[in-house]
Structures are given as C-alpha cells and as structure tokens.
Amino acid sequence: MCQYPCRNCIYFKECGESTRTMPCEGRTTKTDIKRRQQLIAEGEREQARRAFYED
After folding, report:
1. Which of 19, 23, 33, 41 meets the CB 3.0–4.6 Å disulfide criterion with 5?
2. What is the full DSSP assignment across 1-55?
3. At residue 37, does pLDDT exceed 90?
C-alpha cells in the first residue's frame, strides 16, 4: 500500500484529499489506464487472430 494514495490519481482535482492515508476505491493513475488499454488491445488482437483461423 502506498504512503500517499492520492498522488498521481487522475481524480485528485475532483477529490482534493491531500492528507488521505487510506486508499480509496476510485484511485486510478495514468499508468493504470495505459496498462488497461494495452491489455484490451492485446485481447482484441488475439480475438481477431482466433476468428481468422476458425474460418
């Protein structure tokens, strides 16, 4: 668990909690978003590859 859970969170401007010590459920960083997008793209490529070879 990180010491400052609100640092680098994309929702910091809306939340504004700079002294939070416990993680919140909505914490998301730009790195998390990039990682999710990469996993989705890889999944789509794999799905397209499987569909191509099934026919």
Report:
1. 23
2. --SSTTTTBTTHHHH--SS--SPPTT--BHHHHHHHHHHHHHHHHHHHHHHHHH-
3. yes
